[in-house]
Write the structure tokens for this entry.
Amino acid sequence: MSGLLFSPVTLGALNLRNRVIMAPMTRDRAGPGDVPTALMAQYYTQRAGAGLIVTEGVQPTPEGKGYWRTPGIHSAEQIAGWATVADAVHARGGLIAMQLMHCGRVVVPANRGFDADVIAPSAVACPDKVPGPDGTPTETALPRAMTEADMARVTQEYAQAARNARMAGIDAVELHCASGYLINQFLNPASNQRTDQYGGSAENRARFPVQVLAAMAEAIGVDRVGLRISPGNPYNGMDPSDPAATFGPFLDAVNGMGLAFLHVVDMGLPDLDTLAFLRAHWSGPIITNNMLKADSAEELLQAGRAEAVSFGRAYIANPDLAERMQAGAPLNKPDYALLYTGEERGFTDYPALDAA
Ligand SMILES: Cc1cc2nc3c(=O)[nH]c(=O)nc-3n(C[C@H](O)[C@H](O)[C@H](O)COP(=O)(O)O)c2cc1C
């Protein structure tokens, strides 16, 4: 197959050799100290044929950890581990962006292996359970409401995490503003019940997210910072109604900054053409995601609806997804029982085409 999918594209400072991007996916395989392992380096290297890899969500600070065995980017050992990953991906000619994911209130404390506060815009618990250490759905902790001092500190933690990622040789960072985690908790009125300048109106709810993006851009350069959103996603207790009312003002506030890309999980909303809505509020490159196949992705690119596309589950089972799509070859199916467990099984043992 030829087409736009396999043509180069520029996202900020990044020159991608194709538009097939690996979507961020948490896989719960970090080592002690939340350090990325040699096995993780192998997993990402196998997938380096993507135009860009976006890593699994990575906590910028211990307080940002909510799930079992997720990696961090706040210690020297973690930076060294990520440097091994980045070097190996670069050796295969790939590019890698790190997703910075602070879980906010979506925390099962037993997943952490250390004590740290659970913080969120307001002291409102996440109504959804999340997997505990053995995978059983477990109640999350009641968070404490962040003070203005917390917000200033967490903003700097994100900026430092971005610097750490660059120190490890990671090409860019993506701020996770989707799926009900900390930044999304600020944007959404169900989790943000503040009465100060960080709550209430959509403009106020966007204030902390915009502040964090500005600090990250200041730290490593605006053309190496992207963001990910999922308007209308009810995950982790988000109120999915009227996403345009929240995301319009948020995007209007960040549009002039010159960020590298906007990565959207298009929920296929019945009342909102998400990609058209984004074009009206965002003038930079768009990466779109969710349930795409080679054909539907190519159609979106040909129609000018997005500049690039990302694939999640297809990349779990197909380390050489871009190459397979270009060859028109069949795809392996992921084993969902091994998403978050199994070490190398269901992680690095899916065959590439030339080995299959
Ligand atoms: C196992 C798994 C883990 C995921 N972890 C993350 C994550 O850490 N951060 C994120 O933004 N999205 C995460 N997602 C969502 C994916 O990035 C993607 O949006 C979703 O899988 C839909 O794309 P697809 O239809 O191509 O799979 C995850 C999805 C899966 C299947």
Q: What stands out?
A: The chain has one domain: 4-338. The chain has a mean pLDDT of 97. The longest strand covers residues 52-58.
